[in-house]
Write the structure tokens for this entry.
Amino acid sequence: MSKKIYEIVDKLPTGGLTVRALKTLDTFVPGQWNNLVGFDNTIKTVTGETDEAMVQAIGERAIALFNDKKQGYQSALWLYETVDSASGLLGAAALANRIGQDTFLGFLKNLSPKPEKAQTIDLAVKLVTEVVAFCKISGIPGDSLGDFLAALGDYSSESLIRMAALVSFDGIIPLGADFSSKALSAIKGMGASDLDDNQTFKGVKAEIPGGNDKAKLSFITESFESTKGWMDRFVSDHNITQSGLVDNLGGFIEGSKSKLDYLGAFLDMSVKYYEHTGTQTLARRLIERAVAEI
Amino acid sequence: MSFTHWLRRLAPLMVCLVLLVTACSSAPSKYDQVQKDTTGFGSPAAVDKKAEKGGTFNAFFPGDQGGYKVIPYQEKKGFAEYKLEQDGKTLAMLTISDTTGIPGSAEKYGTATQSVSGFPAVDQGTTATGVLVNDRYQVKVLSRDPAFTKEDRVAWLQKFDLKGLAQLKGAINPVPKPTVALPEAPTAATPAAPAQPKDGFKLPRVQLPRLSPSLQPAS
């Protein structure tokens, strides 16, 4: 059965690990993200429209646009959902259940950290997913890195917090302050076979530009290389540091400070920030288009 | 006596049961009908096949001016959108869309009482002002900041190259003329339209073939 975008947006959580983890980033990018949830609420907030008949008309057009597969919104949502679920090792629900029961350290015993190579590929694949999904939503060609980079400079609200989370949770925490250089040189040394062992890549590979794994790897490398400058600037402009991140997360993830590699793995499986903020970005763009077209 | 007593005891249980059962199936939504209409085999496309490419519209948007920045935002078939910013703050969205195949979109201009640069104009809701060019292309300015008033919207509508946009192909299914006359354009183009009543419902998609005998003005 077709997914109902209005239900998906209505059901976006207002609390839980993903939202709490994203809120810790507020220290670095203050006031950017306010976790906008609820379909009608999003319409009203994005457009400033209060007239109920207008809200309904905007909602109906947005739903029609989402349901038309050719418009690319469904595959963008699929990408955001898939890249998150493919990168996690265990079910988030099982994990969430344990959190209240025993200590975080107790839980960590059953968890093995991801090898650096897998973490590097995750980071790069997630970045490419953003390029492709964003292009699908905004209507620019999927392999148009130049257009993406121009748009990245103008990222705000949930899109910007998603990039902040990418850089922080998938970059700095597991790989350290020099994550971008480290990751880039690692990817450059990889071959297509390295990718094919990676769950995250396998999850979304169908949508990554390139006729085969080798071409896809080269698109991934090119994307990473051209976005690296932006990522480095973002980190230094906002003073994002590993210790700062860990301090903030330590506020609700007990015992995480001394176990950085585990913390990365923990975030990886329990925090679905791509899906959450990706849905929000998608809803915003759909609504902005709908209000203009009706 | 004892019957009503039992009833009184049972009532809360029954209410709970009913709530439980209804909660299992997802709650009805005011959007269920449109969901049904736009999904499944044979459901209509959201964007008409003959809609203009979004990229075509780029040429008609205003550029940066003074402290204002006009930033590309979305470009889809039949649609293009730019953000209007000042000092990093979004004031409004500027859009051009092709109304072909979007119910009610062009029709609302049929009763327009205002005009901008000679094109019929309407206010929609509380934050949008639009004009319709060539019976087909909708140009809208949507406020995103309370300080950006209707006057600002009209001023920015005038900064679009509306005359240039009017050089594109006209409406596939023209709607009845508003009171304002269009500045140019081959009125011979619309001989079949006059007898139509106001509702947008009337023209089924069957009339589409009239597209190709192009009615392009010379330049």
Residues 178-219 of chain B have pLDDT under 50 and may be disordered.
